[in-house]
Amino acid sequence: MALGTDKETTTMKCIRVPSPRRRRSALVLLAAAATLLLSGCKGGDLVSYELPEKSAPYTFETETNGVKTVWRYSSAKATKDDTSTLSPCIGELVGSDQAACRPEPLIFLRYDFGLALDNTVRAGEAHEVTVVGYYQERLSDLPEVTSLKAETTFDGGSTWRPAPSKATGENTFTTTIRNPRRDQAPAGVGLRIRATDSQGNTVTQTIPVAYTLR
């Protein structure tokens, strides 16, 4: 099993293992996980582990600069390598472990906020945000992101309200946010996205300030 980093949104920095049962004998990490070291994680934060043979549900959480991401997914012990030649297992690179490895089926999110040159959005108007779901590169067929729900907050997360969203392409969705007056969201507009794929895996990402208003 291996975990990588979301280079597009930089929401994944250090790994926090949610359950002691996941801390079994070490397997291997993908080479992509080495980027976590470059982002400031300590060596102890990089964890590799062997999963039981029977598939089970897991939860994985990260938080960086206030952006919180929670993945819920099902996984089991890898029986064969499922990685690309561009992202080999670390064990293959250093010769320390030849066990089978693969990325976990984590849904990552990439955003196009449609910002102006000053990184703001016009207040009092409807505004579209495009969200694309994607996965770490692997050889087998990937799941498909089948649904996306969006919520917005104008008061720093005290209250959330649904925002309509629709599929506009493969793993691609557009959500429409009705921006309030600038004085009604002085700190900016927050966004919470929950995406689900064809295998039942989910990701919930909360961005306290997605953009500010002008």
Fold blueprint:
Elements: H1 35-38, E1 56-64, E2 67-75, H2 90-94, E3 108-112, E4 120-121, E5 126-134, E6 145-153, E7 161-163, E8 165-169, E9 172-178, E10 189-197, E11 202-213
Parallel strand pairs: 4-11
Antiparallel strand pairs: 1-2, 2-11, 3-5, 5-9, 6-7, 6-10, 8-9, 10-11
Structure write-up:
- It contains 2 helices and 11 strands.
- By secondary structure, it is mostly beta strands.
- It has 2 domains: 20-94, no CATH class; 108-213, Domain of unknown function DUF4466 (Immunoglobulin-like).
- Strands 1, 2, 4, 6, 7, 10 and 11 form a 7-stranded mixed sheet that branches. The protein has a 4-stranded antiparallel sheet with strand order 3-5-9-8, with no helix packed on it.
What's the end-to-end separation, in Å? Answer: 45 Å
Number of helices: 2
Approximate strand percentage: 35-45%
Q: What does the overall shape look like?
A: elongated
SS class: mainly beta
The string of secondary-structure elements, in order, is HEEHEEEEEEEEE
Tell me the total number of β-strands: 11
